[in-house]
Structures are given as structure tokens and as C-alpha cells.
Amino acid sequence: MKLAKIALIAASPGSPPPPDVLPHPEKIFIPLDGPWGRAEAQVAPGQTVEAGAVVGRFQDPRLPMLRASAAGSVEGIRTVNTPDGQKAQAVVLQPLGDGAPASQAPPQGAAPVALAKALTEAGFAETDRHPWPFPARICSPETASEAFQLTDAPFHNPIETLIINGLDRQPGEMVRRTVLGHLGSFVVQAVAALKALSQASRVVLVYDRSAPPGGELLRSLQEQGVDCRGLENVYPSALTPVLVQLVTGKQVPQPASDPRLVGVAVIDVTTAWQLGRFLTDGTLPLEILVQVSSWKSGLHRLYRVPAGTPLEPILAAANAAPQPAKIVVGGPLLGYAQFDRQAPLVASDFVLVQQPDEVHTYNYRACINCGHCVPVCPMKLLPNELGKLCEYGRFHDAEAQYLAHCIECGLCAFVCPAKRPMVQLIRHGKREILEMRKES
Ligand code: SF4
Ligand code: SF4
């Protein structure tokens, strides 16, 4: 797999400060729609709920509970715009003051099956989308079978390697570095449970070797048998298929993109932080980390907020730019430009704010067949062809050219002299194919 080196677009944020805890926002939105379908609301308008109360439940008991990230009164259930450009039904909560994060008695010394079920009940959501939720993904075949009745591929594969991904995903990002720098003790607390659940013969923590976490953390992890590996953080080495190949030499089959198929499980270090915290004091995984950066003003701030906090109060706290020209949630290469500042953030994320003179406006041109996009594609695709096929509505032809293998890294667009919006074209093609499947 080829890795294209891209220069940092902005000055490195350097050593990140600890995240600030923001006061609760006026409203919190907890989407019922997500990657596994729609959960059924468990609350009604006017009802008052405690922090951590169940507000949504999927029919499939193997899917995570949706919980209130703050105590509050249920204003209603309404449609919201999500940061990835979708619409979702969401429970709207009006928080009742700033309470402590929701917690419950931590599962002490639980056996793997009970622990896996406890994590599902706790409602672990994750930063990246995965084919299965976190508790199922990291279970050994025996635990997956007993806890979740999952016996087919990929769950019958033993997990040889469990990777804790502490690499920030793109230039300018510092969410994972912050976890390792300031919240790493919780990651240490998570290791025994991760080993018990996965039965992995090898647990690896990867971190940015140009910004290693303190020696104390690495020593504590090594004492627990974790292989700590500093990697050169060259984009897109933190994206799962690329990372798995860098660490294990194995290629993750596409388009399933499930590392379990090759005996590997990957979890984000932000999830390991939440897991360690849950096991230590019972704090439910309902708080997320949000980075706000404005490269023009050199601003880099990190906040801890309840999951479901809309963009607006986070941007206001950062005072990133009173009249930003563009807000991108998900970072410069993987993110989505926002039009609605009420869009709720439900997982740890990177928000980039651009001022008017940072935004380049242009009309993209036809592909000039220069071929620059081909050698940079880590998935060995023909981005030029995919872009054209999606542009002209030839979605089935794009599918035949492995459209679903694209990991939307954005490198093809980064190098394109015709400024073609490759990722947008490819995402459009993928969505059209999904819609056609739903209709047929
Ligand atoms: S966005 Fe997709 S097609 Fe473009 S370089 Fe990345 S993986 Fe390849
Ligand atoms: S880099 Fe842009 S112009 Fe060149 S082949 Fe790829 S899509 Fe076409």
C-alpha cells in the first residue's frame, strides 16, 4: 500500500493543552438514526430524565443504548441535520444546569461475556463508523458467540492483534495526542479489559513518533504487555485499512473494510479513554472531545462536552471567527462543510473554521487526464475514472471500478490540478448506489 506524503497545511499545534470542560449547552440533540438504523425513542415530550437515562433503544439488543448525556427535560423529537449531511430524528433535551457526567457502578471484575453486555448497555459510540459496534467488534469468537450470538464471519476469526489507534488522522489534528498526553491513565486502565474481551495475542498502541506521549504512560502500558509503536504520522496512515497494513502487514479486504476478517481489531484511543474511565469510576461514555482550530488565527482549542452538543456553543466558546466563511466538521481532508450550526456532534471530532480569505472559490474543470491522482491513491484505485463516472451518473460502472473500496481520504482531490471535487463526487456515487439498493 502506498502512502502519499502531504505537507502539513498549517503550523503544527505543538503540545496540546488539556481540554476545557464547557458548561452544558441550552439544547442537546441525541440522534435516533445512525449507522445501524433507527432506534425507538424511549422518552416523551415534557418528560424529565436523569443524566445517563435511556432515551433510545434498538430492536436488536446487540446494538448500543442511546442515553441522555445530561439531565434535562425532553422538549420533543424532531428532524435535525447531522454533520455528515444527513437528516436524523433526534431527541431534543433541555439540560437542567451543569451536572456531573452520568455514571453508574463500574462493572467490577466482570467476566468477558458480562462485560461485553455491560458495554453495550452503557452505549459506547465511536469516532469512526464500523460494521459492528465496539463491544462486538473486540470480542473473541467465544465471547461474541455467547454475548451476542454472533458466530458467522468475521466473528469466528480469533483476534490476533488489537490496535489502539493513538495517531491523529489528519494535519493539524490533536484530539488523540491530547488523550495520550492528558487522559492516558484511563487508557492504561482499559488494557486488562481489552485483553480479556479480545483474547488478542498482541495489543499494540500506535502513536505519533514526532510527539510521543510521556515516558510514564508508555512504561505503564509496556508493563501491561502493550507493544507501544511510534509511527511517522504521514497522512493517511491513521485510517484503519492503512494502519492495519502498517502494523501487521495484512491487507483489509474491501469493500467490507472489516479488519476482523484478517484477525485484527482496531479501536480509537478516544474509545479506550472512555472505556478506562467507565471501568474506573463508572462514568458513562457520554462526553466527547471536540477540537476547534482556525489556522488563520493560530487558534487550537479542545473541549469536553456532552455528546449531542450542537456546533454553535462550541464555536462561541472558542471565539474562532465571529463570521466564519466555512466550518468543516471532520477536518480538512475527511470532513464535511456545514450549513447548520445546530448540527449536533455525537463523537469526538475536529472542527476547522476558515475565514473569508482562507476559502478558495473556483469552478472545477474537466479532468485533464494528467494522472496525478492515481499514484497517490492508497487503495490503488483509478480516482480519475471514478470521479468521471460518478459525475455523469454512471454509478453501476463506478461500482464495477471498485467505488466502494474508496476510503474517502481526499488525496486525489488534494493533488488534482483541475480542482475536481473527487470526494464529493465519490460520496455522491456511493449514496446513489445505496438509495438504488433500498428501492430495489
Ligand atoms: S479519496 Fe478514494 S479514490 Fe481518492 S485517493 Fe482516497 S481512496 Fe483513492
Ligand atoms: S488529478 Fe485531476 S485532472 Fe489529473 S487525472 Fe486525476 S482527476 Fe483528472
Automatic annotation (TrEMBL):
Keyword Iron included in the entry's annotation: yes
GO molecular function, one term: metal ion binding
Pfam families given in the database record: Fer4_9, RnfC_N
Keyword field contains Metal-binding: yes
CC terms in the record's Gene Ontology section: membrane
Protein name: Electron transport complex protein RnfC
4Fe-4S ferredoxin-type domain mapped to chain residues: 358-387, 396-426
Keyword annotations: Iron, Iron-sulfur, Metal-binding
